[in-house]
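Sample log: Delta-aminolevulinic acid dehydratase.
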Amino acid sequence: MNRHVTSPGTGHPAGTNMVDEITGHRRMRRNRKADWTRRLVQENRLTVDDLIWPIFLISGENRRESIDAMPGVERLTVDMAVEEAKRAADLGIPALATFPNISMDRRDETGSHSLASDNLINEATRAIKKAVPHIGIITDVALDPFTSHGHDGILKDGQILNDDTVSQIAQAAVIQADAGSDIIAPSDMMDGRIGAIRRALDEAGHQNVGIMSYATKFASAYYGPYREAIGTGGLLKGDKRTYYIDPANSDEAVREAALDVEEGADMLMVKPGQPYLDIIARLKDTFAMPTFAYQVSGEYSMIRAAAANGWIDGEKVMLESLLAFKRAGCDGILTYFAPEVATLLARR
């Protein structure tokens, strides 16, 4: 005769209890019980190899300018940018992305100074590559730093001229590659730009220069501090909704990325980052290509401001926000936190 042995006072079979009955002895907390087990089963990790550092450039020498809307971020003259590139390389950061604040006397309706071989972007590329040849340089060919109206393309009669803009940015891409840029990252969102840039680079003998497409750049409200940083905030006439993607649209973003892949993009980028983690995951799952996110100025400044007010632990939120990009499928992140994060990671 079988005897049903129960644990005293529980009414459950000996060696078990109500929770074991409910879970079937499957307890998720076993793998969380200690630091060493948590490290063993961690699915995603943030490393210095995931970081791209965007920096802002100004003309002159030995000068830094603080950016009120981006605490801790500065505009740098080229010589100062070279010193920061050395620091980034010492920290193990793989690449920099450069963005210029062009003086107003160099800006016009067509952004023609983008075609100058000695403009601020190209000057910085040559100087950094000479001093730190092993760090990657990523440059943008969008016209907004060079236009008097703050748009990413050529403006005529209230319209952004797609084809004229594409022709100009393809020329600018070759000039940037001539200066030593390793990756062209066009953020303008003009139709056909990736194919035109690829064709222009190849015809100029720059087959080894890559293209990181801002494949899905949304008409976002998160860009405000960046526009202050490059001096376009007060210039912009109208908005950019005729060429950036509607934040409500996910399928359209995938179609945009598909076209860029067909046209020859080597890498895809989602901008902004954290509000669009779903887009990152969709692109990675769909195309299985190197996929990046830009943690934009608004994301950065919100974390900084909340931390300054004592509302959050800034360091922990910074690291958690970057880990979220990895979880969503990112191979890397453009972030203004890069030097700070690299320093923290080196101490671990």
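Observation: The chain has two domains: 1-29, 49-347.
Observation: The mean pLDDT is 94.
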